[in-house]
Structure formats: C-alpha cells, structure tokens
Design a protein that fits this description.
Layout: H1 12-15, E1 19-27, E2 30-32, H2 34-47, H3 55-69, E3 76-85, E4 96-103, H4 107-112, E5 116-120, H5 138-149, E6 154-158, E7 164-167, E8 171-174, E9 181-183, H6 191-197, E10 202-204, H7 208-212, E11 215-219, E12 223-230, E13 233-234, H8 239-254, E14 259-261
Parallel strand pairs: 5-6, 5-12, 9-10
Antiparallel strand pairs: 1-2, 1-3, 2-14, 3-4, 6-7, 8-11, 11-12, 12-13
Length: 262
C-alpha cells in the first residue's frame, strides 16, 4: 500500500478502470461523513468479494496526508481514497493498492455551489455500473466536459425513458412539493444525499418538469445546491427548499456528528 508510486501501464486500473474511490470533504482537519464514505467503499468490495484495505492503514495514511497538507481551520479540500488493482489476480490482496491524497476542490465544483446550471446528457453517455463508485469514469468525465463546453457546471444522466437519474458527480433530488423524490432508476447511492434525506424520500420518475419545478444536487464536495437552470431554462427554487439546503450545509460543515477529525 502506498500513497505515491507509479502504476504499471498494463495494470487493471489503467487498462480496464478496475478500482474504487471515495472523495471526502475536508473542512480543516475534519473529514465530513467519514464513516458513511468508508461504509460505502467496504460494502461495494464485500458485494463483489474483493479484498479490502486494512482499516488501520487507511486511517493512518489519511491522517498523514492531512497532516502534510497542513489545512487551516477554515480550509476546504478534497481527501481522495483510491483502492486500485495494479496486478491481474483480483483475488489477491497484494494486487491492490491504496492511494490517498489531499487535493484542491475543482473550480467547476465551487462554481456549482452558488446554484447548479445543468444540461441533459445524450443517451449514449451512461455509467457502466451505476451503483458502484468505481474509477471506470469515462461517461462522467465526458459528461462534465460537455457541460463545461455548454456553459454549465453539471450534466445529468437519463434513463432509457428520458427521465433523470443523477449528475456526473452529484445525486439528484426533486423537491416534489416538499415530498423529496429520488430517481426510480439505477443511480449511485449517494452518501451526501442520504444525509440530506435522513430517511425521507420516495422513488419516482424524475421528469424535466419535476426538475424545473424545484430540485437540488448533493455531492461530497458540492454539498447541497439548488438546480437553477436545466438546458438553459430557468428552474424554480422554492423558498422552503432553499431554507432546507442552507440549514443542511451549515450542519454538514459544523455539526461534530457529521464527521471526524483526522
């Protein structure tokens, strides 16, 4: 296990995208929603009967990375945990490597925090395994590139029936008149969206009309933000939704129950 070493050109992670990752928001030295992020990673690995990183090593490397970054209390950065296959025998723990780094939050993500301008992705761009936070990320990378080239800061995947599923790095929640709604189709089980929903919510087809009447995006680095436009058309931002978003973000960044200090 290492935090900085070359990856072979023929590694499964390079040639096939075989790897898993979590991106955790750092607020100073506080890792927001730390335990849910680790639970999602571990749950995925157990579901596919793959080796898991040692928890003690993961925590030690994370603390070391944060220490080296020397964050000020008000700093916000991204802590990236990556568990990647560097050799072909995926059942062998030695074939896997843990990489941990502290990074700046991308500019597009910071822009999105003031209200997301979203575009609809073409049907051919789809996640290959929507329920898994894997490094096989072509559709998301191309989708965000399309959004940026269109003057937006997020792009939304659709299901075969044309309803909306999620963003390239965010979860989509429709306000739905106050009855929070998630997409009925396959999408990543978002850690931040789960915290926002707190057990609420129904699964319904999320149509463009539902998004335009009020919706929000949730992501570890994005936080919770309203969708202010979809394909250039203005979206409603209900006052109650905006109030709930603001309250959630404040708690996420300050409530000790939402994170751990590394």
């Amino acid at each position: 296990m290492s935090r900085s070493a070359d990856v072979p050109f023929d590694a499964p992670a390079v040639e096939r995208g075989v790897g898993f990752f979590e991106t955790v928001l750092l607020s100073g030295r506080r890792a927001v929603l730390w335990e849910p992020h680790l639970a999602r990673l571990g749950g995925t690995l157990r579901r596919f009967a793959l080796p898991e990183p040692d928890r003690g090593t993961l925590e030690a490397l994370s603390k070391s990375a944060v220490e080296e970054a020397k964050p000020a209390p008000a700093d916000q950065r991204a802590l990236r945990l990556a568990w990647i296959a560097v050799s072909g025998d995926l059942d062998a723990p030695a074939s896997w490597r843990l990489d941990i780094s502290v990074r700046a939050i991308p500019e597009a993500t910071l822009e999105r925090r003031s209200g997301a301008r979203a575009v609809t992705l073409p049907a051919e761009l789809r996640r290959d395994t929507p329920s898994v936070k894997s490094t096989s990320y072509f559709a998301a990378v191309m989708g965000l590139r399309l959004a940026r080239r269109s003057g937006a800061d997020e792009a939304l995947f659709t299901s075969p029936d044309g309803t909306y599923l999620e963003g390239t790095s965010t979860s989509l929640i429709a306000w739905n008149g106050g009855v929070l709604a998630r997409a009925a189709g396959d999408a990543l089980p978002s850690v931040t969206a789960a915290a926002f929903l707190a057990g609420e919510g129904v699964n319904v087809p999320v149509t463009g009309e539902l998004v335009r009447s009020g919706a929000l995006l949730c992501g570890s680095l994005t936080l919770a933000v309203p969708v202010v436009s979809l394909d250039g058309a203005r979206c409603a931002v209900p006052a109650a939704m905006a109030e709930r978003i603001g309250d959630f973000n404040r708690r996420l960044l300050s409530d000790p129950g939402y994170g751990v200090v590394l």
